[in-house]
Design goal:
The protein is mostly helical. Helix content is about 85%, strand content about 0%. The protein has two domains: about 45 residues; about 220 residues, no CATH class.
């Protein structure tokens, strides 16, 4: 029994020793695991720290890029301002050393009334557009330039021939010029009235908003032509001293003043003007009446008997009255001559009655 107990005690001792070794190894393994987890946590914390540093650096870089872009934009703006200042400096030096007519007018226009200043500015824009067209034409091909000059000289020669025909062959007088003006203005207002009916809008307002530069040229041309037409009316009044001619002059002045106040001035001041169809119709009827009145004085008298004038004779008499010199009389109608055949038929019909 003693040997068995001793052996049992030895086995227990061995088992305790082995158990103690196993527990020690387990403790070592747990310690290593905890150390490993601690190191892993430190590595993760370090990685997160590095990631945060990278994010901050990226934000700083993005902010720096935005700042560089803003600085680049500011530099571009400053360069444009510097260029503008240099141009202004050059223009100021040129205006002081070599002033042009436009520079003098720009200085004087500051003291003008708003309408005159607006007309000057719009006219200056037309001149600048013409200069740009001229500069672009300098870069065109020779064939295009030659064709343009050919058309310009053809138009110039045509206008000179028309002026020669009107003043030499047609033998224009003040009354015939007034008749020509009546027909032109009547045709213009007929066109405006018809366009107003077709478009259901004011054609002059559409003209001014769609193509402004040709409208400015039209406005200036209309003003000059109407002033010349009014002067001819006043000369005719001074020669005839008739109440009917005075009434026509007053009507023309009223029409011109109404057009100036309601259409011409607002258009040149870039203001809106309303629908004036009724006034356009009145203008149309007025100038049509003037034209018919003058044409009736030129038309040959129709015989009331059996032998009426043929169409050829009728047109021949009208053409002759348009091209023959006019005798100065008090009235325009009294200055017209009656053909011999026309006069004979007239007195023959009076005798028969």
């Amino acid at each position: 029994m003693n040997g068995a107990e001793k052996k049992l005690l030895d086995d227990r001792t061995i088992i305790k020793e082995e158990r103690r070794q196993v527990e020690t190894e387990i403790e070592h393994m747990n310690g290593a695991k905890m150390w490993e987890s601690g190191e892993k946590k430190k590595a993760l914390d370090l990685l997160a720290h590095y990631k945060e540093q990278i994010r901050l650096r990226q934000e700083e870089m993005a902010h720096s890029v935005l700042h560089v872009q803003e600085l680049s934009q500011e530099i571009a703006v400053l360069q444009s301002k510097l260029k503008l200042l240099n141009e202004r400096k050059f223009l100021a030096q040129r205006k002081i050393l070599e002033p042009s007519l436009e520079d003098l007018l720009d200085t004087k226009s500051r003291s003008w009334d708003p309408l005159s200043r607006s007309v000057y500015n719009k006219t200056k824009e037309l001149v600048h557009d013409y200069e740009s067209v001229a500069s672009s034409s300098d870069r065109s091909s020779r064939f295009v330039v030659a064709l343009v000059f050919l058309l310009m000289y053809t138009l110039l020669v045509g206008c000179m021939y028309l002026a020669y025909f009107m003043f030499v062959r047609a033998r224009l007088s003040v009354s015939k010029l007034i008749l020509l003006g009546d027909i032109c203005f009547a045709s213009f207002w007929i066109l405006v009235t018809v366009l107003n009916l077709i478009l259901s809008r004011d054609p002059l307002y559409v003209f001014s908003t769609r193509i402004s530069h040709p409208f400015i040229f039209f406005q200036l041309t209309w003003l000059c032509s109407f002033v010349g037409y009014t002067i001819l009316r006043v000369i005719h009044l001074a020669v005839s001293m008739s109440l009917s001619v005075l009434a026509e002059v007053v009507c023309v002045i009223v029409v011109g003043h109404h057009y100036y106040i309601h259409i011409w001035r607002p258009a040149m001041m870039d203001e809106e003007f309303g629908e004036y169809f009724v006034f356009y119709l009145c203008y149309c009827c007025l100038f049509i009446g003037f034209s018919v009145n003058k044409l009736q004085a030129l038309l040959p008298l129709q015989s009331m008997g059996r032998s009426k004038l043929s169409l050829g004779d009728y047109l021949r008499i009208v053409l002759k009255r348009l091209t023959e010199p006019e005798a100065p009389r008090d009235e325009f109608a009294a200055s017209l001559k009656v053909e011999d055949a026309d006069t004979f038929d007239l007195f023959a019909n009076i005798r028969k009655e």
